[in-house]
Amino acid sequence: MVKGRVVTSLRNASTSATLPPSTPHITSRFPLAPLPNGMLLRSLLIAGISSKRLLLIPSLKILSFLAKPDRNFLLHVEKNPLIYGILKKTFYNQFCAGETGPETRRRVRQLKDLGLKGVILTYARETVFDHKTNKADVQGVDSGDITSSSAADLCPHLEEWRVGTLETVNLIEEGDILAVKLTGAGPKVTQAFAEGRPPPQRFLDAINEICAACKARSIQVIIDAESQHFQKGISAVTLDLMRKFNRDGSAVVYNTYQAYLKKTPSNIAEHLEAASKDGFTLGLKLVRGAYILSDDRSLIHDTKQDTDDAYNGIATGALTKQLGGFGGEGSKAFPSVNLFLASHNRESVIGANKLHQERIKNGLPTVPVGFGQLHGMSDEVSFSLLAEKDENQTSPDVYKCSTWGSMGECLAYLLRRAVENRDAVTRTTDEFTALKSEVWRRFKSTFGLST
Ligand SMILES: Cc1cc2nc3c(=O)[nH]c(=O)nc-3n(C[C@H](O)[C@H](O)[C@H](O)COP(=O)(O)OP(=O)(O)OC[C@H]3O[C@@H](n4cnc5c(N)ncnc54)[C@H](O)[C@@H]3O)c2cc1C
Q: Is the pLDDT of residue 116 over 80?
């Protein structure tokens, strides 16, 4: 019943109010101008590798090989100084904030100085479940440690994750966002998620402590979506957190919804129902989904176009306040929703921002919206969005999302970024072209060459 309503509503939303096409000519002429030279050149190197399959495929194979736990000294990313040095100067510095507090703080400052609304920071530790091998790997932790700790009363992984996450809160400021991967809390928590049991009370106390610390400092919390093996448990915990912390008319806590999953519309409808019934704000962070390689493929839309349609349909539905059987004539009143669109897809984000601005200009109902791109990716999209000012000359709220943690902890994250670049050939080629043009523009202006 609920599912049927959602599908109808999304279909209506995507036909009656589809996202307007993006019009690149109205954005700044030089969107990459704010990038410092060092960042620009490193981005050029990474985009150069990513846009050439001949370079990217071997790089991906090497990264994937190194990301496996239990590598011996020679091939261990943190023990072999040569491998460490190469990875650190290239992939790590491109996509991650730092391995220590001071290094991370410097990078966060650098990102905020680019004119963004704020930074989303996350602690890298996570557990990735591979559907094909039926195996879970905690990144940055040897498997021997996991086995011995799961027998102990107190799980050291949970405590390390709690401390690491609270440390992350201290690396950001008011207006920034903390992103949390719940599977980083270790095997006791992930086993409970996988078996559909409630997670340990110590974990629930820890995540409540983290959210309370953030709320006290006006920092929002995004709970990331992860492997499907764990996602039901993650989503249930997050719903309870939203119910508790999103009581003042806006979202402190956001849940992440993966548009590539066939079941996401009905999941959103259930959460809208809960928000409506229990009177809290639904924090709706929308992504396409990053676990296509390791998750059960049958749960995911068959084609990229289907995922794109789902993403744009949900974004449009939220922005027009007609989604999941809520809003619109004869439907139940639309509950309080804060939308966060996390995407590098130019059409999706520029189109959504245009729709949002048009609705505000015409006095039509809409919801607050923020945008996020990953650190080291799609700077051209982030800066183009910033250039899309409304009639009061105010830019949309754009954030860059970065990850901090040791090289070992960040490897699974780095691997997902490389896979994404492999699969987004057109986007990486466009990025490479835009970066080359910016380097050439700076070269010409430095040497006084005419344009
Ligand atoms: C700020 C930020 C936070 C994020 N947080 C999360 C998170 O919490 N959890 C998470 O899972 N991901 C997260 N992601 C990653 C996200 O899910 C996407 O993998 C990534 O952003 C690429 O999608 P895109 O919207 O940028 O656009 P595009 O590059 O246009 O789309 C690529 C995506 O389309 C989908 N796709 C590709 N091929 C197919 C196919 N054949 N069939 C069906 N679908 C296909 C996949 O989801 C793929 O990642 C985040 C991304 C950002 C920018």
A: yes
Which residue range forms the structural domain that includes residue 145?
2-33+97-414
Q: What is the pLDDT of residues 354-398, one digit of tens each?
A: 999 999 999 999 999 999 999 988 899 999 999 999 888 899 999
Q: How many domains does the chain have?
A: 1
Distance CA 298, CA 80 (A): 39
The DSSP code sequence of 303-326 is SHHHHHHHHHHHHHHHHTT-BTTB
Q: What residues are paired with 254 via a beta bridge?
A: 222
Task: Write the DSSP symbol of residue 199.
Answer: P
Residue 359 and residue 320 in contact, taking contact as beta carbons nearer than 8 Å: yes
**Structure confidence at residue 136 (pLDDT):** 61
The alpha carbon of 373 and the centre of ligand 1 are apart by a number of angstroms equal to: 11
Q: How many whole angstroms from 199 Cα to the centroid of ligand 1?
A: 27
CA torsion sign, 339 to 345 to 348 to 352? positive
Query: 13-17, 383-387, 405-409 — which is least confidently predicted?
Result: 13-17
- Report yes or no: 394 and 361 within 8 Å, Cβ to Cβ: no
Tell me if 240 is assigned to some domain.
Answer: yes
Percentage of the chain with pLDDT > 90? 60
Measured from the CB, is residue 307 less than 6 Å from ligand 1? yes
